Amino acid sequence: MRIALSTLGLPGRPLAEVLRLAAAHGWSGLELRCAPGEPIHAAMTGAERRAAARAIAAAGITPVALTGYAGVGAAGDDSELFAEVRDQLLLATDLGAAHLRVFLRGGDGPTAEADARAASRLAALADTAHALGVRILLETHDSHRGGRDVARVLGLVDHPSVGALWDVLHTHLAGESPPESFTALAPYLGYVQVKDIAGPDDLTPLPLGAGVLPLDACLRLLPADCWVSWEYEAPWFPSAPPLSGLLAAGAHYLASRKG
Question: Which of 36, 55, 98, 155 is the most buried (most CB within 10 A)?
Fold first, then answer.
């Protein structure tokens, strides 16, 4: 198990500061949130991309993924979605990130239609991802929060450059046990996001191990070389304790569960 940190927990912080915090507290990888107001975004110039890639490499940190927000199952025009994802695939390549995160966002319409729409779009993007050396990962989230939901879509795509990102919060809220989620996702698994909460009615982020999510049960199932990333949802919970003060304990928590 290799441990990474999502920059979601440090919103708006300069990349140099995030890299310093990660390296100082034992985090060897980063999920790079791709969004306006963040140091990493799709409008970065070539010079900005090269500088970011150099800084990441100099810090000895692995850029595990670029975490975008495209909804591959959302209703709407294909061309806009394709342009968004292709731009992010290029950014991931420029930064050296092996993965690009997408959501399904199927909404409240028929599930079969959302499945088919997402699978068709992912299949259309798969060869581009392969050529760029990036794997698109569909996260367990929103309309498809269960491992079985994501696996159903990925089974329709059947391409090695399209896989799954297991967010343990959402599979838990979907009512799946860790073995059920892992069994569904294992053939497609890219890496895993962990977090902790007080309960389904209070999603305020907590230190790892301080809440109700079955983290130990999930971690025991993973291959030894799997990346595990702490996604601390700071932007939506401003009253939560700052992540920077929790990093050392979080790294210790995960390190103590290796193997």
Answer: 98
Mean pLDDT of 194-222: 97
Per-residue model confidence as pLDDT tens digits over 128-137: 999 999 999 9
The structure's pTM equals 0.97
- At residue 258, the pLDDT reads 62
- CA–CA distance, 28 with 63 (Å, rounded to integer): 9
Residue 54, C-beta contacts closer than 8 angstroms, at least 6 positions apart:
none
Nearest to 153 by CA among 181, 180, 122: 122
CA distance 105 to 11: 23
Residue 180 pLDDT exceeds 90:
yes
Closest Cα to residue 152, out of 118, 200, 109, 175? 118
Q: Long-range contacts: 173-179, Cβ < 8 Å, 24+?
A: 173/145, 173/200, 174/140, 174/145, 174/146, 174/147, 174/149, 175/146, 176/146, 176/147, 176/148, 177/214, 177/217, 178/214, 178/217, 178/218, 178/221, 179/217, 179/221
Tokens 């109700």 sit on residue: 212
Distance separating alpha carbons of residues 88 and 82, to the nearest angstrom: 10
Distance between CA 91 and CA 86 in Å, rounded? 9
Q: What is the mean pLDDT of residues 26-55?
A: 97
CB distance 68 to 81 below 8 Å: no
Task: Burial-class residue 259 by CB neighbours within 10 Å (0-12, 13-18, 19+).
Answer: exposed
